[in-house]
Amino acid sequence: MSTNTPAPVITIDGPTASGKGTIASLVADRLGWAVLDSGALYRLTALSVLRSGVNADDVDAVAQLARTLNVTFDGERILLDGEDVAQAIRKEDVGNLASRIAAYQPVREALLQRQRDFRQAPGLVADGRDMGTVVFPDAPLKIFLVANVRARAERRYKQLMEKGFSVKLTDLLEDMQARDARDAGRANAPLVAAADAVTIDSSGLSIDQTVSRVLALWSERQP
């Protein structure tokens, strides 16, 4: 690869619990590429807000936290100031706050370059909500991964129960519907498929089937 040619990127965008994180990780493993969980950066910022006592409505203060996050991604571990918070950032209150602050333009700007810095050879699989539209608009393959809201709520319920969290499926369903509306309706980088994205509905697909579909699409784009 020429030094002037950017590393290839596959972007996987979609609503919460569509399975994009799992699919991104597995596709990256198969290709031997790095993976970027962009949502983790917003969740880390949200966790920092909750722990610091910063007013979540103070846009500038939240953006400052985003700029100064001391974060290290180490395999399955996500270290914030040296503490593994991989489980803590998956709590629903953190996720809901992350969705709120993701609508703040200064926060998005603070995290934009940090996300782009993950683009290194041999390649990157990036998942989020605006990877294909804003962060990596030149990505050669953009996936928009969807699933019906009931299927997504059931997936998230299973994930949280397996991790020992006590949750109600009805509450998850309501939160997810509200988050979908907020993510799609925000003025800054709303959740929307890129014009050149391929939409995959994973409602009736297994994880392996979805991964195979993404890899086939990537293979089709190779010379």
TrEMBL record:
Enzymatic reactions: dCMP + ATP = dCDP + ADP; CMP + ATP = CDP + ADP
EC category: transferase
Compartment(s) where it occurs, according to its Swiss-Prot or TrEMBL record: Cytoplasm
Enzyme Commission number, as recorded: 2.7.4.25
Keyword Nucleotide-binding listed: yes
Main location class: cytoplasm
Positions with a binding annotation for ATP: 14-22
Family (UniProt): Belongs to the cytidylate kinase family. Type 1 subfamily.
Listed name of the protein: Cytidylate kinase
Gene: cmk
